[in-house]
Specification:
With 505 residues, the protein is α/β, with parallel strands linked by helices. Helix content is 37%, strand content 24%. It has helices at 9-21, 26-42, 47-52, 58-67, 74-80, 85-90, 149-157, 175-181, 194-206, 258-266, 291-296, 315-325, 334-347, 387-401, 406-410, 452-460, 467-477, 482-498, and strands at residues 72-73, 94-96, 100-103, 105-113, 119-127, 163-169, 184-191, 212-216, 228-233, 271-286, 303-313, 350-362, 373-377, 414-416, 420-425, 435-440, 447-450, 502-504. Mean pLDDT is 91; it is low at 1-6. It comes from Nocardioides phosphati. Pfam families: DUF7059 (PF23186), DUF7782 (PF25004), MTS (PF05175).
Length: 505
């Protein structure tokens, strides 16, 4: 166990001050580089950035040193990091010769959206980004990944309500812990990679988050007996044959998608009532079993679950993706590795790999009714961060729990969500449209075809009249039987609530 790390605070404080004094922030670097060089760097190309950072200012020096991985003169390094160069060399963050300094570790500015209304500048230490300028991107077994598309996706997925305790399972460089520290009283970050734990601890100190505690151990072992209000995890989910090689940040060492299954089965035991576990994951799609049936079999009934399959890759595309990630495209045994992986998929009956989000919410002991399970494929564009839409789903589940009885539903006062718009399609000059579509502008951006009654109902849900009053008025207008209209549209109203078109007034 590593616990809270205080011995790094003096160095971290001094480094933070130097980075801040140089305006070495996400916006500062973006302005220095300009859009062309900044976009090129996002593609791992440094030439445009090197041309923009020749002025010798502290900001230019730090950008060249850490982001562009170029050597800088000792005098410039001392100017940008006054009194720190030798100390950072001792810690393995820098290395120097008589005249030049080079980075051995990435120190990257990171602009994070904490919630809908506030942003914060962080600095994230990790191993150097591999593969700049077309060089081989081969990484070591204990490589500590920095900011990535996966870490950003999990940050956008994770709920940001105030909680007492939060767990960052498999913390890596600790970026999720930094996010969690802003809205949790206590954050525990675990990992089996001791190098990752050192870096995560340094990042906690660098960003002044004393409520982060780092613990050494596999999965839930370091927190046995504890419970949490929120668990966020991007586990090492890559699905591959056991070849003896392992990149810790992506390979769990467990067969197939067992690592994800184990987390889904175990996490409910560590959640407080109402607590959430949110997982960014891969899962196997077998030839003989629908993906949603397979994942539903992992659930024990103690949690409501919202699982979204965002993408599906065929075996060949999946193998190519992760061989490239490991920097093996030019390896002499590339074709052998590729074929071995494909053969293993075939032996296992794997026809595809799914990627997406798993959201579990712990039901209170003795809660009435069955848990709400929503498993859907949604490859479409969504608003980011998506976390508010996940929270809205939880609120809709709670609302529907009070509206199971038709009398309660008809007596409810609902309102249309403010971002919902109505689209109509019809022939030019026609008196009535032949299609009405209700479309959300935010969250999942769902679209739903509606008939005349459903569209009129949604339009009338302004928080004043009950559902029953609206349906009765529509029935009278259409010369239909009120009781039959209520019965025909009760489930449609529940669907509109479940999909967040309507909410309690």
């Amino acid at each position: 166990m590593m616990g809270r790390v205080t011995d790094r605070a003096p160095l971290a404080d001094a480094l933070r001050a130097a980075l801040a004094d140089a305006s070495y922030t996400y916006d500062g670097v973006a302005e220095l580089l300009g859009p062309i060089a900044h976009n090129a760097l996002s593609r791992n190309e440094t030439a445009p950035g090197l041309r923009r950072t020749t002025g010798g200012s502290p900001l230019a020096t730090l950008t060249r040193l850490f982001l562009l991985q170029a050597t800088v003169p000792v005098v410039d390094a001392e100017k940008a990091l006054p009194g720190l160069v030798d100390r950072l060399c001792v810690e393995g963050i820098l290395e120097r010769s008589l005249s030049e300094v080079a980075a051995r570790i990435d120190v990257r500015p990171y602009g994070a959206q904490l919630d809908e209304d506030s942003d914060r500048d962080f600095w994230v230490v990790s191993d150097l980004t591999p593969g700049l300028d077309g060089t081989p991107n081969k990484v070591g077994a204990n490589h500590v990944l920095g900011i990535s598309s996966a870490s950003t996706s999990l940050a956008q997925l994770t709920l940001r309500h105030e909680v007492g305790t939060a767990l960052d399972l498999g913390t890596g460089c600790g970026v999720q812990a930094l996010h969690l520290a802003g809205h949790a009283e206590r954050v525990v970050a675990t990992d089996v990679n001791k190098r990752a734990l050192w870096i995560a601890g340094f990042n906690a100190a660098l960003n002044q988050t004393p409520n982060v505690e780092v613990l050494d151990g596999s999965f839930f072992e370091p927190v046995a007996g504890e419970t949490f209000d929120l668990i966020a995890t991007n586990p090492p989910f890559v699905i591959s044959p056991a070849t003896g090689e392992r990149l810790v940040y992506r390979d769990s060492g467990l067969p197939g998608d067992r690592v994800v299954e184990d987390i889904v089965r175990k996490a409910p035991e560590l959640l407080n009532d109402g607590g959430w576990c949110q997982v960014l994951a891969n899962w196997i799609i077998r030839e003989d079993t629908p993906w949603d049936e397979r994942l539903a079999s992992w659930l024990d009934g103690s949690c409501d679950a919202f699982i979204v399959q965002r993408e599906v890759l065929d075996p060949a595309s999946y193998v190519e993706l992760w061989l490239k990630d490991a920097g093996l495209q030019s390896a002499t045994d590339y074709l052998h590795r590729y074929d071995t992986w494909l053969a293993w998929f075939e032996e296992q009956g794997i026809e595809a790999i799914g990627f997406g989000w798993i959201n579990l919410r712990k039901r209170p002991a003795g809660a009435a009714g069955e848990p709400t399970l929503r498993l859907e494929e949604w490859p479409y564009d969504v608003e980011q961060p998506i976390a508010p839409a996940i929270a809205a789903w939880g609120e809709a589940v709670d609302t529907l729990a009070t509206l199971r009885d038709d009398d309660a539903l008809m007596g409810a006062t609902l309102q249309v969500r403010e971002d919902v718009q109505q689209e109509t399609v019809g022939a030019p000059g026609a008196e009535d449209p032949h299609t009405v579509v209700l479309r959300q502008q935010r969250g999942f951006r769902r679209a739903r075809k509606a008939d005349t009654v459903e569209a009129a109902l949604v339009g009338a849900c302004d928080g004043e009249l009950t559902v029953g009053q609206i349906l009765d008025a529509l029935a009278q207008l259409l010369e239909a039987d009120p009781a039959e209209t209520r019965a025909a549209y009760a489930e449609k109203v529940r669907e509109l609530v479940a999909e967040s078109f309507l909410e309690l007034a």
